[in-house]
Structure formats: C-alpha cells, structure tokens
Amino acid sequence: MALVAGLLIGCGGADPAAPKARPVIGVSLLTMTNPFFKEIADAMKAEAAKDGYEVVVASGDQDPAKQRNQVTDFLVQKVSVIVLTPCDSKAVGTAIAEANTAGVPVFTADVACLVKDVKVVTHVATDNYEGGKVAGRAMVELLGSTGKVAIIDHPEVESVILRAKGFLEEVQKAPGIRVVAQLPGSGARDKSFAVAQDILQGHPDLDAFFAINDPSALGAIAAIEKAGKSGKIKVIGFDGQLEARQAVKDGKMYATVLQYPKQIGTMTVQAIARYMAGEKIEPRMLIPTGIYRQADAQKDPDLK
C-alpha cells in the first residue's frame, strides 16, 4: 500500500503532508521611480509576511495599458488578491472589471478608481482633500493676502484631483491670491522642471508654486534656481520625502504636506487579511496629513 501511495504522489496525486502554497497578493503601483511608492511596497511586504502572504510587485510606469496587462498577468498567475495604485483613475476601470469577472478581489491604495460600475473592496489612502486644504492654508500663511501662484498638477489621478480641489478652496478665501497657471507635470521631477520653466517664462512675477508631490516640487526648485530666482519664489510640496524635508531645512521649500506611505501599505494588507477572514470592510480608509515647516526640519534627526 505504501508503494501505491508513493506512486500516486509521484504521478501527480496531492501529498497531504506537502506545505500549502502561500496566498499571493499581486500589486501594480503607479510608478517605482517615486520613493513614496517604494515605501508602500516595502510596508506591504513586511506586513504580508506576518500573515503568511507573498507579495508580487509590478510598476505600471504611469502607463494605464501596461498596468492593465499586469492585472491580466496576475489573473493568469491565479493571485488571491490584487492591489492597484491606478496610473489613471478612469482608465483603470477596465482592469478592475477584468478582475471582478475572474472573482479576484481588488483593493486600491493611495489613488482611487473613479469608475462607478466596478467593485473595489476598499480604498486606503491619505486624506488628500484635507491635505490639499492644509497646503492651501500654508500658502495663505506664506503669502498673506496677495500673490500669484502656479500649480504643478497631475490630473489623471484621483488623489491629485482631491489635493488640487482642497488647495484651491483654501487660497480662494484670500481674494488677493491668484492662481495664474495650473499645468501637468506627471508627478515627475524632470517633467515638472520643464513645466516650471515654462510657467516662469510666462509669469516672471510669480510668487509661489504648489506642487502636488515632492518630486514635482524638487523639479520646480531646480527651475527656480536655473532662473536665478532662488529665495524669491516659494514652493510648497506634498509627501514629506527625505529630500524634500532637507529642502525645507535649507530654505529651498517653504513646507511640505506630510503623508505616511508606510501606513498606507500596512493598512492595505491588514484590510486584506480581515477581508479574507470574512470580516466586513469599510469602503474607504483615510489617513490624516500633517504639515512640515522649517521649524520641524530643525528638529529632524534624519537631516544633515
């Protein structure tokens, strides 16, 4: 009998003593060139290891078509769960619909889907609308009652739409502050540098930039320096990345809005574990922001 059992196992029969494969979470991030998203991925991996999950991470490289192909690949690999930070909040609907049809639960992190007829278990993110309002209040604090402001935007993604909305609502309360330009920089330093150069040429009397993330803010700072206007044009960013915090300390950036990517990654995996255990999950989990000014930078042990 032992020989027969061994032959069955050798011919493809299941071995009850063999270790079970770990559930896999397939993750497609908007980009991995921004350290913010790497922190989300690292936090997800660390938290997933506690629950016995494996995390496979892919970068969408800000390309909705590439991200959809990654979702298709995850489905072929038979992952247990998919997590997306959409490259485009509307275009991602087709990828989510494909996962819905396959019966694979989808979670979003940082950037939400704006398509109504697809199913996402929950969305875990910064409270981006309130974060935009925090940035707007900081701009009013910086400029007082008057000034010309430009926004370096990334309107394809829901998180930035909310940031810009909150920011505009706050600065519009100061009637002397005018937003004279709002142009897309793709959330990337190099593109934001070029956009900031164009804005500075068109508005040489500009007083400040609001950049929708820290790479955009650092691109704006580079453009300001190249134009010979360091110290004359202020910048407010959004993320709280190390390089941006150093720029705040060095006086190159007035402030950055703090968000917490490690919390986003950790909470997403915790929500997955709860969902897989049969718990009902709230449809949206938002993490409050903070504001980081030079006084905070002076006490920051991570800075030079």
Question: What is the element layout, followed by pairings?
Answer:
Elements lengths: L1 H9 L13 E6 L5 H17 L2 E6 L4 H13 L4 E4 L8 H10 L3 E4 L13 E4 L1 H16 L2 E8 L4 H14 L4 E9 L4 H14 L5 E4 L2 H13 L7 E6 L2 H8 L5 E4 L2 H16 L7 E4 L2 E3 L1 H5 L6
Parallel strand pairs: 1-2, 1-3, 3-4, 4-5, 5-11, 6-7, 6-8, 8-9, 9-10
Antiparallel strand pairs: 10-12
Q: Please report which band the strand proportion falls in: under 5%, 5-15%, 15-25%, 25-35%, 35-45% or over 45%.
A: 15-25%
Structural class: alpha/beta
Instruction: Give the helix proportion (percent range).
Output: 40-55%
Q: Write the CATH homologous superfamily of the largest domain.
A: Response regulator
Q: Overall 3D geometry? A: elongated
**What is the CATH class of the largest domain?**
Alpha Beta
Mean pLDDT: 93
Provide the number of structural domains. Answer: 2
> Which architecture of the largest domain per CATH?
3-Layer(aba) Sandwich
How large is the radius of gyration? Answer: 23 Å
Name the poorly predicted regions: 1-14
The tally of helices reads 11
Order of helices and strands: HEHEHEHEEHEHEHEHEHEHEEH
Distance from first to last alpha carbon? 71 Å
Strand order of the largest sheet: 2-1-3-4-5-11
In short:
Helices cover 44% and strands 20% of the residues. It is an alpha/beta fold and 304 residues long. Mean pLDDT is 93; it is low at 1-14.
Task: Quickly list its features.
304 residues, alpha/beta, Rossmann fold, 6-stranded parallel sheet, 6-stranded mixed sheet, 44% helix, 20% strand, elongated, disordered N terminus
